[in-house]
Amino acid sequence: MTMAPSGPLPTGVTRPLDARELLKADDYECVVATVLDNNPGMGRELAERIIREALKFVATAAINRNSRIAPSRVVDEGWHALILHTKLYEGLCASLGGFVHHFPERPDPSRFNGAVVQFTTSLMADTGFPADPRLWGDPRTGVIVVAASCTHSPPDCQVTCMNKPG
Known about the structure:
This protein is mainly alpha-helical.
């Protein structure tokens, strides 16, 4: 895959040192709680890493509107938690320059496309949000297990879950 150039942040938006800063503290706590509630036994530190990674992903998608990217299964768990807080998610997307839609695929726990992960995480880094590599691995390893039962990278690499041009 060739990488699309990253776009600038919308006017008035500065890139935070920590993606956590994209949300107010109370909002961040609510979203972390959603991940924890959905994943009994998960430690708070991991839930926070998942949310920070989902925030990086959404920011990258909002900034690079014509790039077809997709989250890992673990990051998707955080994205779902953000989306469940509809008003918060709407405000987050607006602050980044535009709404990032979610186009889900049918669950397929075996689906994993390393090329899509590589493209997505490279674009994130180019946009100023380096990825936490442990949260972007092949879900079949079982290293990190989350409630999300699918990923969004079809075998033919034609990502359809988000950022559909046009």
